[in-house]
Amino acid sequence: MRKTVKEESAEIKSESEEKIDTKEEINEVVEKKESDLSIPQTHFSLGNQAFYDEHDYSKAIEEFKQAIKEEGDELRHLKAVYMLGESYAKLGKLKDAIKTFETISKNYQKHYLRDSARRRIQRLTEILAIRK
Predict the structure, then answer these.
(1) What are the pLDDT digits (tens) for 60-73?
(2) Are the beta carbons of 30 and 13 closer than 8 angstroms?
(3) In Å, how far are 33, 48, 64, 80, 106 from 43, measured between CA atoms?
(4) First CA to last CA across the chain, in angstroms?
(5) Residue 99 CB: number of other CB atoms within 10 A?
(6) 66 backbone dihedrals φ, ψ, rounded to 5°
(7) Which of 13, 47, 73, 119 is the one with CA 20 to 30 A from 39?
(8) Cα separations in angstroms, 4 against 1, 11, 17, 30, 46
(9) pLDDT tens track for 49-58
(10) What is the DSSP string of 58-88?
């Protein structure tokens, strides 16, 4: 259950043993504590934000490329590769998207995203054939 601002302020006040009298001081302390809990932005999260929230697929491509270079977590690395492919597809760069999905299909044979990547390859290949 989430605490109220008053409860949070009382807890902070008792922990720090500082005198907090005004509403402004209480808000400052609460804001500082909330900012301490914020999640750091990664290239993966920035790529997702660009893709889903902003629909800026060029920016998403740049962020996902950077995430692929830097991401140590294998699952997030693989998801960044997958989302890079989706970003290319959204921009109509179907050959780049197919190449990206092929990377997943070849290199991650036991991962659940492999099947999704194979379906995307098939669908994007069909779209390319229709366009010719």
Answers:
(1) 999 999 999 988 88
(2) no
(3) 25, 9, 6, 9, 24
(4) 58
(5) 13
(6) -65, -40
(7) 13
(8) 10, 11, 19, 11, 31
(9) 999 999 999 9
(10) HHHHHHHHHHHHH--SHHHHHHHHHHHHHHH
Is pTM, for the whole model, over 0.85?
no
Q: Which long-range contacts (CB under 8 A, 24 or more apart) does 48-53 make?
A: 48/83, 51/83, 51/86, 51/87, 51/90
Domain ranges of the chain: 5-36, 43-131
DSSP 8-class letter at 40: P
What CATH number was assigned to the domain covering residues 43-131? 1.25.40.10
Paired tokens of 35: 């900012």
User: What tokens does 81 get?
Assistant: 């590769």
Burial of 110-132, coded b for 16+ CB within 10 Å and e otherwise, reads: ebebbebbeebbeebeeeeeeee
The Cα 126–Cα 94 span in angstroms is: 10
- Cα separation, 119 vs 15, in Å, equals 55
